[in-house]
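note to self: the first set is below, dont mix up w the second
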Amino acid sequence: MLHVSYDGAGFSGFARQPGLRTVQGELEHALGVVLRQPVEVVGAGRTDAGVHALGQVVSFPATGAEPPLESLSRSLNALTGEDLVVASASFAEPGFSARRSALAREYRYFLVPGPVPPLFTRKTAWWVKRPLNLDAMRRAAEHLIGEHDFAAFCAAESLGKGSTFRRLDLIEIASDREMGEHVVVVRVIGNAFLHSMVRIIVGSLVEVGLGRKDASWLGEALQSRKREAAGPTAPAHGLTLWHVEYPEECWL
């Protein structure tokens, strides 16, 4: 099992795609070189093109001799490029899957409100150019906590491909500073997420924060189960997969 971080700008998403540079493709190539056998990996989150990760978890079956974990990380980092880092490697219990074994996932979306464009955070935060009413955004977010049908917050092209019921445990909206710049951080924690779900939630919250919609509108959009009832999809570059939680018994 690998803990992986990456700058999503240089990748066409996590999932392997023919002819495109992806996180899965880069990791499988590097693992194949180091382990001298084909390897297929599973990621905890299938991040879209342009989405970053600080706490992505990747699993793959260990076959043959067990590789030394410290040298495995070093060898992989020598092959993957500077925008993809294997922070650590460890062994997990038999049958562990980075995706299926996860209890919860945390995403963080970074916003820069106001007229001054960001400099140091421009590649990891969405500049919304106007002040945001954070209290209104928090009231709107309350409508989404719990287990619901989140069809209104799923990319239209992915609807009809499975259940759209998900559970959200937390949406926290707070002011912070990154590299000396004012940012608003939207923390979203849930058991699993639909395609573009966090970005659509954030895009909808920004509509409320800008005063274009009131807080109750988000609850109405949720109940409609129609994608067109919710807000726009926030840009990919503001989103980071922050952390994935697993049962303690997964680790060896």
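second set (the one i keep forgetting abt)
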Amino acid sequence: MLVFRSTTEGGGALGIEERRRRQRRQLRDGILAAAREIARAEGWPAVTIRKIAALVEYSPPVVYEHFDSKEDLLLELVRTGYAGQLGAIEKARASSDDPEQALLEMSRAWCRFAFEAPDLYQAMYGLGGVSFPVAELRKEGEKIAEAMAGTLAEALAKYGKEEEGVWEKVTIAWGTLHGLVALAMAGRLPGGEGEAERLAERAVRGHLRAWLDG
């Protein structure tokens, strides 16, 4: 059971106000953590404000002081997820000076993030019964696509290839990675996560050879 009640003490009006702000931040973080805990155990359709409130040991109206609705809470988690995935992708890009190798590392980072935070990934990409209007999430997703597109453009330039069609190529790679991850998460890929990662790397290598050597 998650309990988020601060015992921090502070003196004076400023100390009291700072303590209240800290308590609100702690409770907000606790509410988000509780939603993820329920999702991991029971799936996103089972997540309700009432269950979250029970887990953090507050009443539902207190949860509504932080989030207007379950959808509002989910959007916050989705934004957190996209930020985390972008960070993993950018770290992978920085791991190699060679853009071709960097793209392979980025594909591995995609799969690792998905399998390490499956609840967030499901919410981000509309799996497990979660859905949002595309417009709500387009900006966050485009940042990841831009990171991949920039690296692919570098690889194409290295081989003297035209950068025309780079976004189409990124969409193909994105669809391949996501498709394999989704199949593994649904239990429909023999070999599970490990096989998804192996096939993802093989597929990205194949795409790169076709695009760079063709």
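remember for set 2: The chain has nine helices and no strands.
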